[in-house]
Amino acid sequence: METQRLHPGSSHGTTLVESDRIQTSHSQSAYSAAYGYATDRVQEFWDRLRGKGRRKVGWGESLKNIATSSVLNLFIIFIPLAWVSHWEMVKWGHDTTFALCFLGIIPLECIFDWGGEQMALYLGKDLGDLLIITLNNAVEAVLAIILLASCDLRLLQSTVVGVVILHLLLIPGTAFLVGGYNIRQQTLHPHHSELNHSLLMIGVLATLLPTAFFAALDRGVSVATAGAAETVSAVVNDTTRGQILKMSRGMAVMLLVVYIASRIYLHNPPGENNALTVPHDAPIELHHEEKHLLEEEPLVNPWACMILLVITVGLMAVTAEFLVESIDEVREKSGIQTEWFGLILLPIVSFSADGAVAILFFFQSIYDHFTNREILVPSMLARGRAIDLSIQFTLWWMPVLVLLGWWTDKPMHLLFDYLEVALLLGSCFLVNYVTADSKTNWVEGLIMVVFYLMIALVTWFYPGQPEAGFMLECKGTVAEAIARGPEGNIDIAISNATALLARAL
Q1: Is 365 helix (H, G, I), strand (E, B) or coil?
Q2: What pTM, to 2 d.p., does this model score?
Q3: Per-residue pLDDT tens over the stretch 167-189
Q4: Gyration radius from the chain CA atoms
Q5: Most buried residue, 9, 27, 75, 270, by most Cβ within 10 Å?
Q6: Average pLDDT of the chain to the nearest whole number
Q7: 259 pLDDT band (50/70/90 cuts)?
Q8: Which residues, other chains included, contact 111 with Cβ-Cβ below 8 Å and sequence gap of 6+?
């Protein structure tokens, strides 16, 4: 073989040289075809993003449609009132500030929904769905980051669990209940449902492992819950917390890898030329949805929509920060348990817009039923993306919070309260059972809502696990937190709220 290559004058040598040239030519052709395809796809994406081929929507029309996109936009008046209440907190009070911030976030969440739906017309189904999911998680993500910055890690953990449970039970349960009461069953995308089961389980199991590790180390030595501890467990200390922090940070990186890999699989499935497109073998409903996105006329131009979303994120960040700063005082005055405050009340902020839409749709559907009109389910209820929101929060935002805490020297880890882990597992199992056959009905929606109400009832009386609070001590060592006891931690929270008030004044 080598001799023939050295003597190209022979017939066999010529054949090999020609073969190499043909293979090189084929490789270059394949590369050119792939490059040309990629170039065409980029141009196609850019043309679609600019709205080429669609009716041009002017800036005036865009602003008008933004203002009239939802009746909930009237609640925007509460945002400047909430800001004034924050700076005049001595006169207005923490309760007023909290309530106004709560109401002010409702229209912002609604704008996220509407703006995401409009951008999906310009981005396509794959990127559009990812953007909508990310925007719908923006409220909780902003709240979580602010809680992390203020070092209220106990409330942060309970809020993370509450957000996941809310997206697993209450939001999809409401969607299935309201959207399916007049039809026999609703069909979910089977491909996504099967993958969601696995993604959901790995995210929940990531919180189980550190908790099981901590429980296995405990030899039954009790941790004192009084201010002056008489006995200190050999498990609840800085050494154990350091080990849990290390394993939490490693697991956070692994969860991020899983989430990124899942997005690549969904948005670029196996096969040729499948990136950011609906595969040819996909269910017919997906092709219809993509066709609908291509044919529907947008109500706003893409640049106005992008500016709208950026401004909304800024307003959300400021309003959420003011809400968090008023939490401690409201919690002290109301006597609400920290667990219930984080598991139920704060996550409800993100559901307030959808809840208001559900209530309005309920009364409208009754009116339409008696007047024999067609009942149209609002898009934010019919989409049923809430389970995807839980997956993104457990596989993306929760690991990001752990790594962000590492970067800012905050001991945020994946050791959660025992009851919180049990609630996550129970919610995950119920959702997997409900969506196992990729079909739902209004009774299953009712079951999910009722289970969420059961959780709300139980956590109303739950004071929280003291050991979990000690291991999240942010101002000193674990031993100092045990010496102070839970009441000492409350005193620190009150002093922090006082400092924030003094800075505001």
Answers
A1: helix
A2: 0.78
A3: 889 888 887 877 666 666 666 65
A4: 27
A5: 75
A6: 77
A7: very high
A8: 66, 69, 70, 73, 308, 309, 312
Cα–chain-centroid distance for residue 168? 11
How far, rounded to the nearest angstrom, does the alpha carbon of residue 472 sit from its chain's CA centroid? 23
Closest CA relative to residue 132, chosen from 347, 380, 334: 380
Q: How confident is the model at residue 72 (pLDDT cuts 50, 70, 90)?
A: confident
Q: What own/partner pairs with CB < 8 Å and gap ≥ 24 does 489-492 have? A: 489/154, 490/332
Angstrom distance (rounded) from CA 145 to CA 319 = 13
CA gap 86, 101 in Å, rounded: 9
- Helix (H) / strand (E) containing 424: helix 418-434
Cα separation, 417 vs 396, whole angstroms: 20
Q: Which residue has the tokens 């008489």?
A: 230
Q: Quick one: three-class SS letters along 301-320?
A: CHHHHHHHHHHHHHHHHHHH
Q: Is 393 exposed, middle or buried (0-12, 13-18, 19+ CB in 10 A)?
A: buried
Amino acid at 477: T
- Alpha-carbon distance values, 201 to 131, 134, 187, 455 (Å): 23, 20, 22, 20
SS3 label, residue 439: strand
* Residues 493, 155 contacting (CB under 8 angstroms): no
Tens digits of residue pLDDT in 422-464: 999 999 999 888 887 777 888 888 899 999 999 999 999 998 8
Residue-level pLDDT at 436? 78
Q: Where are the alpha helices (DSSP H) in 51-137?
A: 59-67, 78-87, 89-92, 94-123, 125-136
Query: Contact 188/283 with Cβ under 8 angstroms?
Result: no
Residue with tokens 């550190």: 210
Q: Which amino acid makes up residue 409?
A: D
Instruction: Indicate the Cα dihedral angle 67, 71, 72, 76, nearest 10°.
Output: 40
How far is CA 404 from each of CA 151, 228, 398, 411, rounded to the nearest angstrom? 12, 33, 10, 10
C-beta neighbour count of 32 within 10 angstroms: 10
Write down the residue that tokens 């209440």 correspond to: 85
Say yes or no to pLDDT of 396 above 70. yes
Give residue for tokens 């995401």: 116
Distances in Å between the Cα of 190 and the Cα atoms of 186, 195, 196, 284 are 12, 9, 10, 12
Q: Which two tokens stand for residue 131?
A: 């953007």
**Of the candidates 132, 193, 181, the residue with the CA atom closest to the CA atom of residue 358:** 181
Q: What tokens were used for 175?
A: 């969607």
CA–CA separation, 164 and 19 (whole Å): 59
| Bridge partners, residue 187, by sequence | 439
Indicate the pairing of strand 439-440 with strand 186-187. antiparallel
Q: Which two tokens stand for residue 196?
A: 């969601």
Cα–Cα distance, 21 to 480 (Å, whole number): 75
